[in-house]
Give the backbone structure.
Amino acid sequence: MSNVDQVTTGTGEVTASTERLGGLGKVLISAYIVLALAATFRSVYQIISKFDEAPVAYSLSALAGVVYIVASIALIKRHGVWRKIAWIALSFELVGVLVVGTLSFTVPQYFAHASVWSQFGSGYVWIPLVLPVLGLIWLWRTRPVAKA
């Protein structure tokens, strides 16, 4: 049984698509689900109990949680429009981690408390920085390729 199926695009072009999820895909999806739950529940607690202490940080953590949820769903579904959503979510996440990480060092007064993306995700063992890079590499490596 082959792990590669032929897919016909809307223009009639035949492409090869890897249907099997593979080890890296399973690890990525699992990590995104765990991070989605951790970031979302932590931010909900922080927003409910102490939002006035660090509204920017807690809002960013909530945004990160939403991005992780969307990325998780898109990586699980990973076909058609969901693949594009995965690209957008992971790219947005990477840019968010880089921007917030940089700002948390250069303008620390904006971050009275840490967010998921503060200091490039150091509070989460830099997983928020590494995960989108691995996810984007995985999306690139599993992209549909034109059949020669």
About this structure: Strands lie at 4-8, 14-18, 145-146. The two ends are 21 Å apart (CA to CA).
